[in-house]
């Protein structure tokens, strides 16, 4: 398509309607955290239709089955508010954030608006005939990934064995969930995994906000001697003062970000020196528009930025992120996609084609439990 043709098509791109499909996707490896054990992922698939006949797509991990229904309700309402308007993601993001300000742009509302923003950017890139990364000023390319499937609270022997299995595909990193009742158990599991995998493999660790400040410092000091790569969310994620104290006390980098609500929260965290690394979730940071704002903040502060979940979307965003670090890979969407994400040599490859490349396999979707 010529530049003139692409410009004409994008000028005619107007929002028509949205379809949402909620499903429970079984996990190949159960995800056991300090908070819960997850064996199925509640997913919401989003299809945004335009008058030009192009459909933009997005998806969300909804954490709870009830979350899918709540997010879908807000998303349908939001699309009704902007129906017939041109596909202009940044302008529509500002408009909808203002419209939902009194309800509060957080949680369910934030995720619904993020999904819409992602689908808008996807359809814009489709109209331009380019990968999303290219539209955002980057270059679609493989991104270094660590395997974040499994490795829950299973004890030393089972966790070490699973870590070895998760290295298939050439991964050079595996994420370890911690938060056992005692420090000794955390150390024993970490030591077993470190012994089971090659020295070159990095081991990020995640506490899912399970500890107090004092306990986080005590456990962090013990674990950094075991060769962990980072310490993630040891305490409540938005306790900037507490996280800053932990970051100062430890040599191992402190990682935050998956629960940051919009780029404003990232600005607050960075201003408070609450972390060494950041890892926003595209569905909580404000979609593509919010991600790019957050990526600018991270770059300005010289902070490495990784992703949280949704790897098929995140791989496009990291390719346009100046301080990109690691992509967090999970295989949950293999149960839905016509062509799952490809991993080679420890790198995640963007889905083929323009836009994000999301395409649902309706036969797979029909076999899943609906929400």
Task: Give a short synopsis of this structure.
The protein has helices at residues 3-12, 65-82, 89-99, 107-128, 132-135, 156-166, 183-196, 213-224, 240-249, 262-271, 282-285, 287-301, 311-318, 362-367; strands spanning 15-32, 37-50, 55-61, 143-147, 176-177, 205-206, 231-232, 254-256, 277-278, 327-329, 342-344, 347-349, 369-370. With 371 residues, it is of the alpha/beta class.
**N-end to C-end Cα span:** 39 Å
| Count of separate structural domains | 2
CATH class of the largest domain: Alpha Beta
CATH topology tier name of the largest domain: TIM Barrel
- Name the helicity range: 40-55%
What is the CATH superfamily label of the largest domain?
Answer: Enolase-like C-terminal domain
- Radius of gyration, in angstroms, nearest whole number: 20 Å
Structure write-up:
It is a single chain. The chain is α/β, with parallel strands linked by helices. It has two domains: 3-131, Enolase-like, domain 1, CATH 3.30.390; 134-356, TIM Barrel (Alpha-Beta Barrel). It is globular. The strands form three sheets. It has a five-stranded parallel β-sheet, with helices on one face. A four-stranded antiparallel β-sheet has the order 3-2-1-13. The protein has a four-stranded mixed β-sheet with strand order 10-4-12-11, covered by helices on one side. It has helices spanning 3-12, 65-82, 89-99, 107-128, 132-135, 156-166, 183-196, 213-224, 240-249, 262-271, 282-285, 287-301, 311-318, 362-367; strands spanning 15-32, 37-50, 55-61, 143-147, 176-177, 205-206, 231-232, 254-256, 277-278, 327-329, 342-344, 347-349, 369-370. The model has no long low-confidence stretch (mean pLDDT 96). Helix 7 (183-196) links the parallel strand 5 and strand 6 (205-206). It has 14 helices and 13 strands. The longest helix has 22 residues, at 107-128.
């Amino acid at each position: 398509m010529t530049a003139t043709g692409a410009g004409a098509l994008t000028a005619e791109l107007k929002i028509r309607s949205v379809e949402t499909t909620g499903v429970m996707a079984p996990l190949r490896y159960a995800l056991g955290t300090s908070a819960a054990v997850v064996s199925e992922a509640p997913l919401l698939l989003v299809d945004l239709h335009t008058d030009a006949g192009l459909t933009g797509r997005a998806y969300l991990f909804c954490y709870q089955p009830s979350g899918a229904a709540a997010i879908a309700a807000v998303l349908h309402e939001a699309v009704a508010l902007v129906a017939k308007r041109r596909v202009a993601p940044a302008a529509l993001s500002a408009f909808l954030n203002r419209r939902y300000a009194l309800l509060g742009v957080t949680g369910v509302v934030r995720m619904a608006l993020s999904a819409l923003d992602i689908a808008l950017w996807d359809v814009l890139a489709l109209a331009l005939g380019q990968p999303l990364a290219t539209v955002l000023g980057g270059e679609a390319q493989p991104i270094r990934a660590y395997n974040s499937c499994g490795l829950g609270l299973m004890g030393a022997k089972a966790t070490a064995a699973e870590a070895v299995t998760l290295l298939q595909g050439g991964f050079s990193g595996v994420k370890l969930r911690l938060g056992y009742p005692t420090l000794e158990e955390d150390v024993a599991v970490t030591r077993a995994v470190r012994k089971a995998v090659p020295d070159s493999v990095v081991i990020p660790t995640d506490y899912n906000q399970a500890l107090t400040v004092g306990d986080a410092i005590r456990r962090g000091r013990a674990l950094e001697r075991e060769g962990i790569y980072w310490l993630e969310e040891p305490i409540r994620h938005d306790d900037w003062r507490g996280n800053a104290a932990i970051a100062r006390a430890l040599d191992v980098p402190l990682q935050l970000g998956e629960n940051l609500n919009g780029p404003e929260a990232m600005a607050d965290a960075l201003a408070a020196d609450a972390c060494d690394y950041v890892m926003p979730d595209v569905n909580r940071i404000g979609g593509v528009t919010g991600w790019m704002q957050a990526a600018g903040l991270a770059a300005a502060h010289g902070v490495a930025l990784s992703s949280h979940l949704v790897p098929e979307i995140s791989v496009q965003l990291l390719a346009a992120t100046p301080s990109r670090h690691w992509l967090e890979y999970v295989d949950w969407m293999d149960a839905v996609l016509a062509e799952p994400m490809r991993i080679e040599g420890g790198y995640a490859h963007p889905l083929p084609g323009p836009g994000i490349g999301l395409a649902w396999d309706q036969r797979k979707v029909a076999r899943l439990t609906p929400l």
